[in-house]
Amino acid sequence: LAKTTQPISMDSYEGQEVNITCSHNNIATNDYITWYQQFPSQGPRFIIQGYKTKVTNEVASLFIPADRKSSTLSLPRVSLSDTAVYYCLVGPSGNTGKLIFGQGTTLQVKP
Amino acid sequence: GAVVSQHPSWVICKSGTSVKIECRSLDFQATTMFWYRQFPKQSLMLMATSNEGSKATYEQGVEKDKFLINHASLTLSTLTVTSAHPEDSSFYICSAPTVGRMTEAFFGQGTRLTVV
User: Fold this and answer.
1) More confident call, A3 vs B18
2) Which segments of chain A does DSSP mark as H helices, in order?
3) How does DSSP assign chain B, residue by residue?
4) pLDDT band at residue A94 under the 50/70/90 scheme
């Protein structure tokens, strides 16, 4: 499974847009990029998944450049409740579902 | 949407005793489930793969005799921490992948184990 690199932590203020970038230089052709969110003392929650270009849902957008060696999770107008750890994972769709988590990015949203 | 339920949410046990944690898929069948452990301010670490009807597969460094996994039905996997010690205190999380989209997993709410 491709290794990912993310910033350890980020700070933001309420109402701002937050972009978290993940590097995955060794991504394979059949790999998808998936982001999870984890609040303290809870299990991770799926946010978004993409393969290329841009994916948007009601929670976030995921931008993936043509070379797919990185991706950016974009959270529009964050609130205090978006304070969490965000994990970027890379892996093939159709595998066993075995997920290897990297260090994640701790996002702290301030009032 | 698919839901994975874990029980209990927290447990405190005495050193030397065993603790069982249950993981249930509530509205879908899961032939495979996964168990993770997470220490404070650290990432999730995969412990083992639970396979319905067969033996679990453990990650390197995880003691299979200490962390007993049973996946007796398509909706239930259990993790038993045997002869627990304070160093086993951690946050245990299970997950189950969704059919057809195997990198999109649903996670239980986690179990906080404290061994005293």
Assistant:
1) B18
2) none
3) ---EEEE-SEEEE-TT--EEEEEEESSS--SEEEEEEE-TTS--EEEEEEETTS--EEPTT--TTTEEEEEEETTEEEEEE-S--GGG-EEEEEEEEETTEEEEEEE---EEEEE-
4) low
Select from B91, B101, B105 the Cβ nearest to the Cβ of A99.
Answer: B105
CA distance A57 to chain B (A): 15
Is the pLDDT at B77 greater than 60, yes or no? Answer: yes
Average pLDDT over residues A94-105: 79
Give just the sign of the alpha carbon dihedral B44, A49, A46, A74.
positive
pLDDT above 60 for B46: yes
To the nearest whole Å, the CA of B115 is away from the closest chain A CA by: 17
pLDDT in tens, B20-33: 999 999 988 888 99
B39 CA to chain A: closest CA distance, Å?
A: 11
HSE value, Cβ hemisphere, 13 Å, CA-based, for B103: 24
Question: Which residue among A34, A41, A87 sits closest to B91, beta carbon to beta carbon?
Answer: A41
Reduced to 3 states, what is the DSSP secondary structure of residue A78? coil
A51 has a pLDDT exceeding 70: yes
pLDDT at position B115 is 97
Q: What is the pLDDT of residue B9?
A: 96
Cβ B34–A99 below 8 Å, yes or no? yes
Across the interface, do A101 and B44 touch by the CB < 8 Å criterion? yes
